[in-house]
Amino acid sequence: MKLASSLLASVALTSLFTVWDGPLKVVNPALVQASAQEMKDITGLTAQQKIEMLTKSKGQFGSGDQLRRYFFGDLEPIAVQPGGAGMVVNLYNKANNVTISYCATYDVIVAVKKGKITAFAPNEVK
Asked: What residues are paired with 80 via a beta bridge?
């Protein structure tokens, strides 16, 4: 008997939370959009500001952490080329149309450029 009542209570609570989301979207869709935008970027920086900060910090230790923090999950490896401490990986961000060259050995960004670039000039990635 207790098992049935606790099971019924948990189903009722689950359905209450599930049903609550629907009316919220109907009553105030702007509220749902605002909360979604806040969750997208907690840094408070625009994409252009992030790219400028990466450009300023290229060649410095820790810039790789900055890259991962700003563009987590948005980077696509498009090429590997000699440079840095052996090889660098060119990572492309489709949303902002920017290519970033990254040296994993020292965890630094060595080059940043607009467009989809498969090979930077050798003097840019040394």
From this structure: 89
